[in-house]
Each structure stands twice: as structure tokens, then as C-alpha cells.
């Protein structure tokens, strides 16, 4: 199947080819000839039909959002909101007494925390590529968090700052 843009390109090439051979053919006439070659009555019919033909989109991915397991809402909020500086994007429970599913965001980084048994394994690691890692380290160290004072480690692949949450999950920040 041809798209409208492909048909226009064919007409443009036909017009240019014939013009270079001293055969006078207008672009509009080239559009009509291309439409007839494609099996349409005229260009108006072809353009109306071709516009409806949608090429399936290529596979694209928008973003990855890791899900980490949590076991205690109070500790999760203390760590991710107070210490790490995330904001709550959304909260969801099917009912008041059921497990919490929590969406967090900070400067474009999205993380979901879940109390649901099957959503994630405790002790997971997520890798976050970032810029200005020293600023993050300085911010976190200035908070004097009682359960960790992360620092940057120089690796062959970049500067790495690892932070462990209260549930054994690790967020590995890296500046390449």
C-alpha cells in the first residue's frame, strides 16, 4: 500500500523526469497520472483514499518504570519522600485494608512501590542513568539519614552512587 506522501513523491519524480527530457507535464498532471497508475479514477479520489490508509506504527517504548517491593508504608514514605526527595504521583488500594501501590516521581524518574505479594522481589536493583550525581550525593548526605550516607564510587563505566531502601532494594545511580 502506498501513502499519500509516497504518491506525491512519485508524481514529483515523474514531473522532474519528463521535464528533464523536454516533455512538458505539469505537477498536477503528474498527480493525475500517478493516481490512474495506482488504480484510482483521479487524484482527488486517490488522495481521499490514501489518507485513510494508516501505516502501522513502529514499536516504540515511552519509558521504563521499575516496581520495587515494600513492606511498611511509613518506612517507605520516610525513605523515598523525606530522604530521597520523591513526590507522590498517585496512591492506589483496592480497599482500605488491602496492600498499597504507590507511584513516585522526581525530576523525570518514576518508581512504583508495591505491597502486593507478586509484584516484585525484595532485594531488587534498579539502574538510573543521570547527570549531576555530585549534587544528589551532597543533597542526600546533608540530610544526615540515620540508615545510610551514600557516597560516589568511581568505576570504569562512570561515577556510581548506590542507595539502599529499608526493604533491601538498591537504587544504583550512575553518571557515565
Structural features, described:
This protein has 176 residues and is of the alpha/beta class. The protein has 2 domains: 49 residues, no CATH class; 109 residues, 2,3-Dihydroxybiphenyl 1,2-Dioxygenase, domain 1. Helices cover 34% and strands 24% of the residues. A 4-stranded mixed β-sheet has the order 1-4-3-2, covered by helices on one side. Strand 2 and strand 3 form a beta hairpin. It is elongated and about 85 Å long.
Concise overview:
This protein is α/β, with parallel strands linked by helices and 176 residues long.
Total of DSSP H or I helical runs spanning 4+ residues: 5
Q: Radius of gyration over alpha carbons?
A: 29 Å
**How many strands, what sense, and barrel or not for the largest sheet?**
4 strands, mixed
Gap between N and C termini, in Å?
Answer: 44 Å
Q: What's the total count of β strands?
A: 8
Element-by-element helix/strand order = HHHEHEEEEHEEE
Please state the structural category. alpha/beta
* Proportion in helices: 25-40%
Task: Specify the overall morphology.
Answer: elongated
Q: Which architecture of the largest domain would the CATH scheme give at its second level?
A: Roll
Q: Write down the CATH class of the largest domain.
A: Alpha Beta
In percent, how much strand structure appears in the residues? 15-25%
Please indicate the count of domains: 2
Name the CATH homologous superfamily of the largest domain. 2,3-Dihydroxybiphenyl 1,2-Dioxygenase, domain 1
Q: What is the average per-residue confidence, as pLDDT, rounded to a whole number?
A: 91
Low-confidence stretches: none
Reported by name, the CATH topology of the largest domain is 2,3-Dihydroxybiphenyl 1,2-Dioxygenase, domain 1
The largest sheet has its strands arranged as: 1-4-3-2
Amino acid at each position: 500500500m502506498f501513502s499519500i506522501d509516497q504518491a506525491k513523491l512519485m508524481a514529483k519524480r515523474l514531473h522532474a523526469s519528463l521535464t528533464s527530457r523536454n516533455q512538458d507535464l505539469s505537477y498536477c498532471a503528474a498527480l493525475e497520472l500517478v493516481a490512474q497508475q495506482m488504480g484510482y479514477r483521479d487524484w482527488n479520489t486517490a488522495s481521499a483514499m490514501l489518507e485513510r490508509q494508516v501505516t502501522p506504527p513502529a514499536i516504540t517504548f515511552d519509558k521504563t518504570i521499575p516496581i520495587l517491593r515494600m513492606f511498611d508504608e511509613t518506612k517507605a514514605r520516610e525513605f523515598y519522600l523525606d530522604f530521597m526527595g520523591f513526590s507522590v504521583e498517585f496512591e492506589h488500594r483496592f480497599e482500605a485494608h488491602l496492600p498499597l501501590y504507590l507511584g513516585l516521581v522526581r525530576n523525570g524518574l518514576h518508581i512504583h512501590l508495591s505491597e502486593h505479594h507478586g509484584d516484585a522481589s525484595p532485594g531488587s536493583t534498579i539502574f538510573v542513568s543521570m547527570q549531576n550525581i555530585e549534587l544528589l550525593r551532597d543533597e542526600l548526605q546533608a540530610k544526615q539519614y540515620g540508615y545510610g550516607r551514600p557516597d560516589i564510587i568511581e568505576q570504569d563505566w562512570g561515577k556510581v552512587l548506590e542507595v539502599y531502601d529499608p526493604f533491601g532494594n538498591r537504587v544504583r545511580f550512575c553518571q557515565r
